[in-house]
Amino acid sequence: MTKADRARGRATLAATASLLVLAIAVPASAQDASQGSPASRTSEADIIVTGIRGSLQRNLDIKRESSGVVDVISSEDIGKFPDSNVAASLQRLPGVSIQRSGSRGEPQGISVRGFAGDFNETLIDGRRISTASGGRSVDFTTVGADFVGQLAVFKTPDVSLSSSSIGATLNISYPKPFDKPGTRIAMSASGSVQDESGKIVPTIGGLFSTTFADDTMGILVDAIYTRRDTQTNRVYVSGWQGGKFAPCQLAGTTATICNPADSGTDPTQVKSVNGWYQQQYGADQRYTKDERIDGRIAFQWQPSDDVLLTIDDNYSRQKVVTDIAGFGIWFNQGDLRNVELDSNGTTVNFLQAGSPTDFTAGTDKNILETNQVGANIKWDATENLTIDADASYSKSRLNPNGQVSSENADIGYGGLLGTSLGVRVTGNSSNAFPELTTYGPNGVQSRWTDQAILGSHVTVRQAQKNSDEIKQFRLGATWKQDDLTVKIGARYMEDEFSLENRNTFANNFWQAYAGYGAPSGRISGVPIPASLIQGTIGTGSWIPGFKGNLPPVLLNYDARAYQQYLEGLWQGPGTPGYNNGCCTGFNGTIDLALDPGSVQNILEKTWSAWVSVNFKTEIAGMPFHFNAGGREEITKVISTGIGRLPTSIVGSTADPTLLTVAFTDAQPVSTSSSYSYFLPALDMKLELTPNLHLRFDASRTLTRPALNTLTPVLNVGSGQRVGALTATGGNPALKPYLADNFDLAAEWYYQRNSYAAVNFFIKDVSNFIVAGTQRQTINNVIDPSTGQPAVFTVSQRVNGPEATVKGVELAWQHVFGDSGFGFNANATFVETNKPYDRSDLSTSGFAVTGLANSANLVAFYDKNGFEFRTAVNWRDKYLLQFGQAQNNSAFGAEPTFVNSSLQIDLSTNIRLTDQFSVFGEALNITNETLSTHGRFSNQLLDVYGYGRRFTAGVRYRF
C-alpha cells in the first residue's frame, strides 16, 4: 500500500468522523422515508412461517433493513437449526469459508473474506465468550447449534457492538422465553455413524420454555448431549525443512567421501545447494470420541411495561479423546545421501543409512469447559429514551483438574538394526502421498513388525492446563425520535489468560528407557513383551483418492499400558535397560514436571466508548439511510512469565538423535504495555427503487494479537533433537492489526424470498503480525553433535508489513414461485497485493494468509411438510499459516497451504404431524479428504481421510 493510498484511507475515515458531527446536528424531524420497511409490510402469519423458506425470508428481511453489511441465518423452527454445527451453517453465507479439524473432519473455524481465526470476533447475545484455546477465535465444535435462534455476521462494524474484528463480528443469539409467550417444548433424538468407525452414537436434547404470572415472568431451559465418533487415516510429513546440501550428497556424485561442512577447500563437501527435505515421515490411524454437553437457562421478568430483566447462564463441556497408532521416522539433512532434487529444490528421493524405526501410540484427552453467566436490564425511561445495562462473567478452562492430556510412546528398533531408508515423492499433495522405498530392520521388509526385536524408546506425557476469564460490563442509551436514532455507551472488559504445561521433557524422564535395547545393540532400552501388542492395523486403501504405498500394517498398543510396564521394572539406578545418567531424580515412575517456559499469565483490560447516529431522509425523492459512529478503545496489557537461559546441551548415549538442555535458575519476568485507537464507521444506503438498494460503507477496525503470543520470555525446550534446535519468543509489546475497510454494494430484491447482490470490498491492513524466524546462538552453549556454538531457530512475532485485500461477493437467492423449489448461491473472489512468493528465501517472508476463492450452493425443496436440501461447498487452495509441526528451516518459517476442497452434504426433514417430524443427514457423500502442503505443491504435510457421516432422528415440538 503506497503512502498515497494510506493518505486517501485516512482522509476517508477522517471524513467519516466529520460526518458524525454533522449528523448529530441534524434535526430530530428528519423526513420520513417514502417506503415502509419489509417488516411493516409483512403479515404476522408470514413472520411465523417455519421451514427453509420461512427462515430464508427472515434472513433476507434483516439483511435488507440493516444499516451495514449483515448476513443472517435463522432457525427454521424452535430446536431446528439448518446444521448440527454453527460453522457448517455459516459457510453457506457469501464470503464465509470454514477450516476443518483434520482428525474429525468437523468444521472448526471460519474465514470471512479471507480473514480467519482471531480476525473474527464471536459474541453470544452481544457478549465476548472466553476460550481457553490460547487464541481469540472460538472452536465451533464446542458450540452446539441445536437450540441456536440466530447467527448474524456483521461484515461492517456496528460500533455499539464491537469494532474488534477485521474479518467479521459473529453474534450468536439464543432463544428467550419472551420471544413467544406461552409454553413451548422441543425435543430431538438421533443416531449418527461415521462409515469408518462403524459405531452408531447418540444425540439427545430438549428445550422447555414457559411464561407465567400474567406473562410478566418466563423461564427457558435446554440441554443436549452430543457424541461423534470418527476414525481417520493419516499420512504426514512433520515439516519440510529448507537448507543447503553439499554436492557429495546428491545422486550421481563421484565424491568418494562425504562430510558436509559450511566451508572448506573441497567444493564437493561445502553445503551450497538449496533444497528442502522431510524432517519426519509417518502414518497413523486415529479414533476420536467427541462428547459434548450443552445446557442453558434463561429467566426474564417484566415488572412493568418499561422494564425488562434477563438473566441467563450458558454452559458447555466437551471431552475429546483420540487414540492413535502409527509409525514415524526421523531424518537429518546432513545424513541424507543419493539425494534427488526436482526443479524447485524439493527432495523427491534419498537414502539415510542407519535410520531407526519407531512405532508410535498415543492417547490425547482434552476437556474444555466453558460457563458464561450474565444479566441484562432494559429500561424504557421515556417514550424516546431507552437505557440498557449488561454485565457478564465467563470462564473457560482446558483440562480444569490438571489431568494428563497426552500420553505418547515410541517403540521400535535402530542401532545395529537401522535401515538404509528412503522416502520417494511420486506426485502432487492433492492426490499422492510420499512412500518408503525401503523399510524393515536392515531393510528386510518381512520383519517390519517383528516383535522379537522391538525395544522401548521414548515416552512423552503432557498435562496442558489453560484458563481464560472474562469480566465485562456495558452501559448504553438509545434515543429514538421519528427517523432519528442516537446511541451512546461505554464498556469495560477484563480478560485474563493463564497457561502452563507439565511434561516429561522438563525433567528428561521421556528418555528413561530410550535406546531400543539389546537387539539393536544398545545397553539402554528393554524388550517389549508380546502381551502389550493389541494387534495390527492394515493399511490397504488408506486414503481415498490418493496413490502411494505404505508398509502393510501398523502396530496397535496402548501408550499408558506401555508406560506402566516400564514403571514396573524399577529396581534402582542399576535397573537393566535404564538410561543411566539421563534423568536426575528418577525413581521409577514417569512423572511430569512443570515446564517453566510454558508459564504465562496475560491480563488485558479494555475501556471503550461509542456514539452513533442513524437517520432516514430523502434524496431526489429516494429514501436515504445514513449511519455514522465512532468507537474509542483503550487497552492495557500486563504480561508475566518465567524466564531462563540454557547453560549446556548434552547428547544421549541411548539415541544419537536426542539432546538434553540444562538451564539457569528460573526468574519471574513481567512487562506492561498500552495502546488506544479511535475507530470510526460510516454506513449509507440509497433506495433507488423500493427493490433496488445501493450501499457504501467505510470503517476502521482492529484485531488484537492472540493472547498466547504476548508472553515476555524466550522459551527453549529442554528436550531437543539433533539438527533441529528450536526456541520460541513472545512479544508483549505487539500492537493490534489495523484495517481501513470500504464496501460498495448493490442489492436487488426482485420478488418475495428472492434477491441478487454484488458487493465490492477493500481492506487496507497495517501492523500485520509476522511470525518471523532467525537462526542464532543463545548464551553461547555448545551443540555436542557439531562441537560448535549451538544454533537455534528462534521464532518470534513482530509488527511489520502492510497489505491490501480486495474482492467481490456475488449472491443470488431464488424461490420458484409456489413450487417449493429454490436455491441460494454465492461466490467470493479475493486477492491481495502481498501474495506468497515461493522464491523468497529470506527468514522474514510475508504474505496474507487465509485468502481463497470460494463458492457455495444450497438447492432445496420445501412444501407440504417435506424438505430436502443439497449443499455444495467449494474452497480453493489457500495459505493457512507460516510454520509447520517441525519448523527448523534455514529459510524462515515455512508455509502451510491447504489444498482445494469440494464437499457435498444432503439433508431432509419430513413433518408427519404438526408436532412430530423425522430427519436425516448425509455429510461428505463424495468422501472428500483434507490435505496440506508446504512451499511447493508436492511437499505434502498432512492428508486426512475422515470419511462420511450419516444421521437419522426424530423431533417433537409443542
Automatic annotation (TrEMBL):
Keywords: Cell outer membrane, Membrane, Receptor, Signal, TonB box, Transmembrane, Transmembrane beta strand, Transport. It is a multi-pass membrane protein. A motif (TonB C-terminal box) lies at residues 941-958. Residues 437-925 form the TonB-dependent receptor-like beta-barrel domain. It is found in: Cell outer membrane. PROSITE patterns: TONB_DEPENDENT_REC_2, TONB_DEPENDENT_REC_3. It holds the Pfam family TonB_dep_Rec_b-barrel. Residues 1-30 form the signal peptide. Residues 63-167 form the TonB-dependent receptor plug domain. InterPro entries: Beta-barrel_TonB, Beta-barrel_TonB_sf, Plug_dom, Plug_dom_sf, TonB-dep_rcpt-like, TonB_rcpt_bac, TonB_rcpt_CS. GO terms for cellular component: cell outer membrane. NCBIfam families: TonB-Xanth-Caul. This is TonB-dependent receptor. It comes from Sphingobium chungbukense.
